[in-house]
Amino acid sequence: MDQTNATLARLEATIAARRSADPDASYVARLHAKGLGKIAQKVGEEGVETVIAALSGSADELVGEAADLVFHLMVLLGARDVPFARVLAELDRREGLSGLAEKAARPRD
Ligand SMILES: N=c1c2ncn([C@@H]3O[C@H](COP(=O)(O)OP(=O)(O)OP(=O)(O)O)[C@@H](O)[C@H]3O)c2ncn1[C@@H]1O[C@H](COP(=O)(O)O)[C@@H](O)[C@H]1O
């Protein structure tokens, strides 16, 4: 397993373990206590903050916001019982398929 996948696998396992923790002691548990809607909202907020950092922040700020976004996305996937491996497998499936070619092959409305 390469470094990227090892980091994500560790984070996924930590998130799964913290879901049922005390919400007073765990941010992951607190998010789950607030429900799927709150988790999804956080992903949206972190996405917007990542965009702002990309357009007007430093590289360090962009790294920080991107980490927040990936973390909250992993919490969201876990809340829906979707293993991150499925996302990686989907990216693998798309490997080598140009985004332009994929779009051109879509059925027209
Ligand atoms: N990677 C992260 C991570 N990244 C960001 N965050 C938290 O995500 C939150 C995002 O910041 P915000 O200001 O948007 O949050 P907020 O003020 O609570 O937001 P609102 O209540 O206003 O919606 C902060 O509380 C950050 O500390 C994280 N919290 C946890 N982890 C990982 O998850 C593990 C388990 O964490 P706990 O569940 O807290 O033990 C940790 O050991 C880490 O590995």
From TrEMBL:
Keyword Ion transport: no
Keywords associated with the record: Amino-acid biosynthesis, ATP-binding, Cytoplasm, Histidine biosynthesis, Hydrolase, Nucleotide-binding
Chief place of localization: cytoplasm
Gene3D superfamilies linked: MazG-like (1.10.287.1080)
Top-level lineage group: Bacteria
Compartments where located: Cytoplasm
EC number(s) from the headed UniProt entry: 3.6.1.31
Pathway info: Amino-acid biosynthesis; L-histidine biosynthesis; L-histidine from 5-phospho-alpha-D-ribose 1-diphosphate: step 2/9
Recorded family membership: Belongs to the PRA-PH family.
HAMAP family named among the record's database cross-references: HisE (MF_01020)
Protein name: Phosphoribosyl-ATP pyrophosphatase
Provenance organism: Novosphingobium pokkalii
Lineage: Bacteria, Pseudomonadati, Pseudomonadota, Alphaproteobacteria, Sphingomonadales
Gene assigned in the entry: hisE
